[in-house]
Amino acid sequence: MRFASTWKSVRLALAAAGLALGTVASASAQTIEWSSGSPGGAWFTQTTGVSAIVMESIPGLNIRVVPGGGKDNPSRIQAGISQIAMGIDFLSKAARDGSDPYKSPMDKVRTLGSTGVAVYFMVYVQADETRSLDKLLADPTLKIGVTPQSTSEYLTLQRALAFYGNSAEKIRAGGGKMIVSAYSELIQGFNDGQFDVLWTAGEIPSGIASQVQDGRRKTKLLPFPAELSKDFAARFGYAEATIKNGSFPALQSADLPVTAMGNLYLVSADLPDDLVYKITKAIIDNRARLPNIYQAMKGFDPANAWTMRPVPLHPGAEKAYRDAGFLK
Asked: pLDDT tens-digit profile of 34-64?
């Protein structure tokens, strides 16, 4: 992984938000862990920037940001490994209920509310690719890149392959390949022609889309087949959405129907109400700075952020929204 490149992007995000890099924590300071996403991805940048704002607002609090993923983050909360994490609406509910892909209910998972960011699945291919996404996903010789197994992208790709009677095992047996790596390596591998399909999820605007379209391959985004999106919505709780024409002018020439999901902040029920109150208040009070960390975070609105509750709202967060006048 190119951690130097990732750290450079984090420094830029912090500088844009008007934040300074902190010094080493004292032995008496409280430290909690925040599980983000794959290094180089949007969650990693967002989490690093927001955690810096929170630490700036709460003296003595230190937040250690670690890589994670939408699928595994609820499990990290439940196990007490991480105390805060980035989450996805339908996966958070599945974790709470103990339904697929989880084995048992996770009763410690709470939320601070929505991050205000909608995430769209984006599938990139060469501009001269003539096959539709359903044909590609059914092909055992498919060469595709995706983020690690802890992520929602990986889980969703496995579900999409299964819908068309395919799997990672069949791809390997059929002469294809599935490249699993962090975003920076995937983008380089796709641009270098190591595989033909790049399976990602991102926001509008998307830094990943910018990197792909600026690469050596002329590229386009593929629409999702209607039958796949409808099945995902009915069985798993994904959203059916559209990437409007013009969102990525170099990558599309029409509206693109896709599968989408909502992002939220997850938090452990074991965190004290007072600390969660302060964390939530810091995010609410500094909401004007969030787009400086990541542009898509301009969608955070505390008037409705608390309404995204696939898992219960933490009492400390509820009090923060109530005291700020956003929750009656």
From this structure: 999 988 888 999 999 999 999 999 999 999 9
| 292 vs 289: CA distance, rounded Å | 5
Q: Is the pTM of this model over 0.90?
A: no
Closest CA to 90 of 318, 314, 309: 309
> How does residue 22 score in pLDDT terms, banded at 50, 70 and 90?
very low
Q: Are 54 and 112 in contact (CB under 8 A)?
A: no
104 vs 97: CA distance, rounded Å: 7
User: What is the rounded end-to-end Cα distance, in angstroms, of the chain?
Assistant: 46
Alpha-helix residue ranges (DSSP H) falling in the chain: 3-16, 42-57, 73-78, 89-97, 133-137, 152-163, 168-173, 183-191, 207-213, 226-236, 273-285, 290-293, 302-305, 315-323
Encoding tokens for residue 119? 């995430």
Paired sense of beta strands 109-126 and 143-146, if any: unpaired
The helix/strand/coil state of 317 is: helix
